[in-house]
Write a structure and sequence with these properties.
The protein is an alpha/beta fold. It contains 11 helices and 11 strands. The protein has a single domain, classed as Vaccinia Virus protein VP39 (Rossmann fold, 3-Layer(aba) Sandwich). The protein has helices spanning 47-56, 61-65, 67-85, 102-109, 121-129, 139-145, 165-175, 192-197, 215-224, 239-250, 261-274; strands spanning 12-21, 24-33, 39-42, 92-96, 113-118, 134-136, 150-156, 176-187, 211-212, 227-235, 284-291.
């Protein structure tokens, strides 16, 4: 029996089956909860499965191929953080899944007290070399070991990778100051793009995307973890999401961890053309939440 991680309901229907991705040839299904609308991967991957993919198959090099796009999105996120903190005290920021620190770099320029948590060793080393305090550990481990509290906690395209999102959000509630804000960005499974491309949507990315959130499901999850949504926004997906729509349609599967020269060129060109989609699409859902009083 499959249980929705957002509302614990066992009422769900499989909407697509036989889905694979660039990360796994194994076939998965995605089911939608009839109560809150959240969509989740079936079967749920194990911790070992995900660890093997991140170690052997996850293509971190793709992020470098669209670096100008990544930095532009980081600047926009930083502007949003600054705007949201204008009338509030406290500037301690924790980014979970900080990768190479693009967002933290922008926030450091704006005099925020920054800190990152990241699993990838090379990314952590890069951040430290650039003066960004970063810890190489899981969010669960960080919460257990850290004695700090934060005014802003950011999870950008991380929560969908988490096996137990409810437990993680409860832990984050404990290290967020009372007047603090939790900012979450996730793929929006209710987007127009997802409905158009259906089973070929670029951001299914099973099994590394364990959950496929939408506003209804994520609202319920935040409610049961003692958060209250104060604002939500939609943005377009990045160019890789658009490219993956077509890769999925033609059934291309890559097994290499690093991109070839030709692949990199194609991705860079695609990024240059489609980076403007950020301003008109609705594939990315951004939630700003605060602790329930």
């Amino acid at each position: 029996m499959s249980i929705c991680p957002c509302c614990n309901s066992n009422q769900n229907n499989v909407i697509y089956s036989g889905i694979s991705s660039v990360y796994s040839v194994k076939k998965y299904s995605v089911a939608q909860c009839e109560v809150c609308g959240n969509i989740f991967t079936i079967p749920k991957p194990t911790e070992q499965e995900l660890s093997d993919i991140y170690t052997n198959n996850y293509m971190y090099s793709v992020h470098f191929a669209i670096l100008p796009e990544k930095r532009a999105r980081a600047r926009e996120m930083a502007r949003m953080v600054v705007k949201e903190r204008d009338d509030k005290t406290g500037n301690k920021v924790l980014e979970i899944g900080s990768m190479y620190g693009y967002l933290l770099e922008e926030l450091k320029k704006k005099e925020f007290d920054i800190c990152g948590v990241e699993l990838d060793k090379k990314a952590v080393e890069h951040c430290k070399e650039n003066g960004i305090e970063t810890f190489q550990m899981s969010v669960e481990q960080f919460v257990k070991e850290s004695k700090k509290k934060f005014d802003v906690i950011i999870m950008s395209h991380v929560l969908e990778h988490v096996l137990e999102p409810k437990e993680v959000l409860l832990q984050l509630n404990e290290i967020l100051n009372d007047n603090g804000q939790l900012i979450i960005a996730v793929p929006n499974s209710s987007s127009i793009n997802r409905k158009v491309f259906g089973r070929y949507w670029g951001w299914w990315q099973v099994p590394v995307h364990v959950d496929h959130f939408n506003l209804g499901g994520l609202s319920k999850l935040l409610q049961v973890t003692n958060f209250k949504i104060s604002k939500h926004k939609f943005y377009g997906g990045d160019s890789m999401m658009i490219l993956l729509n077509f890769i999925n349609m033609v059934g291309l599967k890559g097994k290499q961890k690093e991109l070839g020269t030709f692949q990199t060129l194609i991705i860079k060109c695609f990024s240059f053309i489609f980076r403007w989609w950020y301003w008109i699409g609705n594939e990315e859902l951004v939630i700003i939440a605060k602790k329930n009083s």
